Amino acid sequence: MKPTIALVGRANVGKSTLFNRLTRSRDAIVADMPGLTRDRHYGHGKMGHKGFLAIDTGGFEPKSREGITQEMARQTVQAIHEADRIIFVVDGREGITPLDKDIAQLLRRIDRPVLVAVNKVEGMDRGVVSAEFHELGLGEPHAISAAHGEGVRSLIDEALAAFPEDPEDDENAERIPRVAIAGRPNVGKSTLINALLGEERVIAFDQPGTTRDAIEIEFERGDKKYQLIDTAGVRRKGRVFEAIEKFSVIKTLQAIEAANVVILVLDAQQDVADQDAHLAGFIKESGRALVVAINKWDGMDAYDREQCKIAIERRFKFLDFASFHYISAKEGKGLDAVMRSVDRAYAAAMAKLPTPQLTRVLIDAVERQTPPRHGIFRPKPRYAHQGGMNPPLIVIHGNALNHIPDSYKRFLEHCFRDHFNLQGTPLRVQFNVSHNPYADD
User: Which Gene Ontology biological process is one annotated for this entry (predicted)?
Assistant: First the structure.
């Protein structure tokens, strides 16, 4: 197994910048304001021939006993216990603070090797800047600049010194479904992930907007592997006031585009909002396979449940390809059905469609219902082949196909979907018009 390195420290010392440097990504939100990272954030890194798993954590206040900072501290402590190595990030420009001393006191009691990374030392005398951090009692400090990459290689080389090189290249790793959990704030996304994992991996806190970043988590359910992506809640545009939440909306939309399957979580105890429909539309336009989970179904009477179903059926008619499930993430009810639909949706999104079968379905559809005439022309679809996956793309060749109306295009989509049982994924049909070699004569 790959070694795990946890990055800990108080807020705004550069942990997320270092995380992005180690994972060669921009997966963690970085901005000049404290408190951006709240949950544990996992990413794959590699230094030389050694791979590792990096964990970015929120601003750590070990003695906090209230609100979200207490939840963040609990997440950080859990990351510390998960890690093989801990990198304690401090700010070389500010020097030692009382909070740094509190964190160091906790880390000295942990049975894990700890390396002190004195960050933001670019343009400064490294020896002078790092000298005072010997006071923390955690060994020789490492002067680094996460933003510029200075000193990072030697820091990680020391952290990984006791671990062997990777036996094989990561490119041969098994492909597993990437499943994004999306929805408005406070609909129960993090509670759903915790229920699926069987542990409190992400903060489930009764305050809208708790999750600000997209958190990737690998897990197994039964004999199948998945990579879950917990995303920040998406609010209506007019209610996105903070720069932090603007970042979160971008991360959510990026997570949807990067996923294979999206579980759209709705709140059964709230009215279906325009934002729910807009988010569903974005998922469909992105071509992502989709499963809709209507959460908080427990505690509702028969009348409210019936009204909820009517409202959802009316607002989401355009999601005729998706499966809908009424669940209680808090009680763990309906989750098996959701994951079965995720498996079906992933299989449909990644399906390989043989050209002979596609062409036969096309011919049968045309025989059953010919395309309508356009003036003196009648479009003539001739054959079809697959042009891509995730979502499945079917390319149809023929004459005058640019005159086929959208209604007939939808008819063909339904024919292909029914024949290949493509439940759970959007399907795209593209027309390629044959060129007449005599048209320019």
Answer: ribosome biogenesis
HSE-up of 303 (CA within 13 Å, CB side)? 0
Residue 390 marked in a binding site: no
- Retrieve residue 321's tokens: 């390809």
Is 16 among the annotated ligand-binding positions?
yes
57 belongs to an annotated ligand binding site: yes
184 has binding-site annotation: yes
**How many angstroms separate the CA atoms of 401 and 139, rounded?**
72
Query: Is residue 173 pLDDT above 60, yes or no?
Result: no
Task: Identify the weakest region by mean pLDDT among 51-55, 202-206, 243-247, 435-439.
Answer: 243-247
**pLDDT band, residue 218 (cuts 50/70/90):** confident
* pTM, rounded to two decimals: 0.61
Annotation-wise, does 58 bind a ligand? yes
Phi-psi region of 326 (alpha: psi -120 to 50; beta: other; left: phi over 0): beta
Confidence of residue 105 (pLDDT cuts 50, 70, 90): very high
Query: Is 185 part of any known ligand binding site?
Result: yes
Sequence-ordered strand ranges (E) for 257-356: 261-267, 289-295, 323-326
Which residues have CB under 8 Å from 438's CB, separation 6+?
A: none
Which domains are assigned to the chain?
Answer: 4-170 (3.40.50.300), 174-349 (3.40.50.300), 355-433 (3.30.300.20)
Residue 374 has pLDDT above 90, yes or no: no
Structure tokens of 254?
């990026």
